[in-house]
Write a sequence for this structure.
Protein backbone atom coordinates (compact mmCIF):
# COMPACT_ATOMS: atom_id res chain seq x y z
CA UNK A 1 0.00 0.00 0.00
CA UNK A 2 2.87 2.37 0.83
CA UNK A 3 4.28 1.82 -2.66
CA UNK A 4 1.00 2.96 -4.27
CA UNK A 5 0.97 6.15 -2.22
CA UNK A 6 4.63 6.84 -3.06
CA UNK A 7 4.01 6.19 -6.76
CA UNK A 8 0.95 8.47 -6.67
CA UNK A 9 2.95 11.29 -5.09
CA UNK A 10 5.79 10.88 -7.61
CA UNK A 11 3.34 10.96 -10.55
CA UNK A 12 1.64 14.06 -9.16
CA UNK A 13 5.01 15.82 -8.79
CA UNK A 14 6.04 14.85 -12.32
CA UNK A 15 2.78 16.10 -13.80
CA UNK A 16 2.97 19.39 -11.93
CA UNK A 17 6.55 19.96 -13.09
CA UNK A 18 5.42 19.51 -16.71
CA UNK A 19 3.02 22.45 -16.42
CA UNK A 20 3.84 24.98 -19.15
CA UNK A 21 4.24 28.59 -18.08
CA UNK A 22 3.11 29.87 -21.48
CA UNK A 23 -0.41 30.13 -20.05
CA UNK A 24 0.55 33.43 -18.44
CA UNK A 25 1.05 34.81 -21.95
CA UNK A 26 -2.46 34.16 -23.21
CA UNK A 27 -4.70 37.20 -23.50
CA UNK A 28 -4.68 40.88 -24.35
CA UNK A 29 -1.68 42.92 -23.19
CA UNK A 30 -2.09 46.69 -22.90
CA UNK A 31 0.46 49.39 -22.19
CA UNK A 32 1.05 50.19 -18.54
CA UNK A 33 3.83 52.73 -19.10
CA UNK A 34 6.37 53.97 -21.64
CA UNK A 35 9.96 55.11 -21.08
CA UNK A 36 11.39 57.27 -23.87
CA UNK A 37 15.10 58.04 -23.62
CA UNK A 38 15.94 60.23 -26.61
CA UNK A 39 19.12 62.19 -27.19
CA UNK A 40 18.26 65.77 -26.20
CA UNK A 41 20.36 67.13 -29.07
CA UNK A 42 18.22 65.20 -31.59
CA UNK A 43 14.71 65.38 -30.12
CA UNK A 44 12.60 68.07 -28.53
CA UNK A 45 10.52 67.42 -25.41
CA UNK A 46 7.41 67.64 -27.62
CA UNK A 47 8.75 64.86 -29.89
CA UNK A 48 9.39 62.68 -26.83
CA UNK A 49 5.86 63.31 -25.54
CA UNK A 50 4.27 62.55 -28.91
CA UNK A 51 6.27 59.36 -29.35
CA UNK A 52 5.32 58.18 -25.87
CA UNK A 53 1.63 58.94 -26.49
CA UNK A 54 1.73 57.02 -29.76
CA UNK A 55 3.24 53.95 -28.04
CA UNK A 56 0.51 53.97 -25.35
CA UNK A 57 -2.00 52.80 -27.96
CA UNK A 58 -0.15 49.54 -28.65
CA UNK A 59 -1.87 46.23 -27.95
CA UNK A 60 -0.47 42.70 -27.94
CA UNK A 61 -2.79 39.70 -28.18
CA UNK A 62 -1.53 36.16 -27.62
CA UNK A 63 -3.83 33.25 -28.37
CA UNK A 64 -3.77 29.70 -27.01
CA UNK A 65 -2.23 28.47 -30.27
CA UNK A 66 0.82 30.76 -29.70
CA UNK A 67 -0.18 33.35 -32.29
CA UNK A 68 1.09 36.80 -31.28
CA UNK A 69 -0.69 39.79 -32.80
CA UNK A 70 0.93 43.20 -32.30
CA UNK A 71 -1.28 46.21 -33.09
CA UNK A 72 0.35 49.64 -33.27
CA UNK A 73 -1.13 52.81 -34.74
CA UNK A 74 -3.15 50.92 -37.34
CA UNK A 75 -0.34 48.51 -38.27
CA UNK A 76 -0.67 44.84 -37.40
CA UNK A 77 2.08 42.22 -37.16
CA UNK A 78 1.49 38.52 -36.54
CA UNK A 79 3.82 35.66 -35.73
CA UNK A 80 4.28 32.52 -33.68
CA UNK A 81 5.59 33.13 -30.20
CA UNK A 82 7.49 31.07 -27.69
CA UNK A 83 8.94 31.69 -24.26
CA UNK A 84 12.50 30.71 -23.35
CA UNK A 85 13.38 31.74 -19.82
CA UNK A 86 12.33 35.40 -19.56
CA UNK A 87 12.65 36.03 -23.31
CA UNK A 88 9.58 36.11 -25.53
CA UNK A 89 10.33 35.21 -29.13
CA UNK A 90 8.19 35.95 -32.18
CA UNK A 91 9.08 33.89 -35.23
CA UNK A 92 12.46 33.11 -33.67
CA UNK A 93 13.42 36.74 -32.97
CA UNK A 94 13.47 38.24 -29.46
CA UNK A 95 10.32 40.33 -29.09
CA UNK A 96 10.57 41.23 -25.40
CA UNK A 97 11.14 39.99 -21.87
CA UNK A 98 8.69 38.94 -19.18
CA UNK A 99 9.37 39.58 -15.51
CA UNK A 100 6.88 39.57 -12.65
CA UNK A 101 3.88 39.49 -15.00
CA UNK A 102 5.08 42.48 -17.07
CA UNK A 103 6.04 42.18 -20.73
CA UNK A 104 8.69 44.72 -21.77
CA UNK A 105 9.69 45.53 -25.32
CA UNK A 106 12.67 47.68 -26.19
CA UNK A 107 13.27 49.53 -29.45
CA UNK A 108 16.33 51.48 -30.50
CA UNK A 109 15.78 54.38 -32.89
CA UNK A 110 18.14 56.97 -34.35
CA UNK A 111 16.82 59.33 -31.65
CA UNK A 112 17.30 56.95 -28.71
CA UNK A 113 15.67 54.07 -26.85
CA UNK A 114 11.99 53.31 -26.16
CA UNK A 115 10.83 50.80 -23.55
CA UNK A 116 7.16 49.81 -23.46
CA UNK A 117 5.76 47.90 -20.47
CA UNK A 118 2.60 45.79 -21.00
CA UNK A 119 0.30 44.09 -18.52
CA UNK A 120 -2.31 41.39 -19.05
CA UNK A 121 -4.99 41.81 -16.38
CA UNK A 122 -6.95 38.82 -17.70
CA UNK A 123 -3.85 36.60 -17.93
CA UNK A 124 -3.97 33.08 -16.58
CA UNK A 125 -1.55 32.66 -13.70
CA UNK A 126 0.00 29.24 -13.11
Amino acid sequence: MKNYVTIGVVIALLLSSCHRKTETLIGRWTVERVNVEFDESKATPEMVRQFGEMEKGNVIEISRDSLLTFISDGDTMRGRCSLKGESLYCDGIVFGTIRDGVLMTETSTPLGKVEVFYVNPQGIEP
Observations:
- Helices lie at 2-17, 45-55.
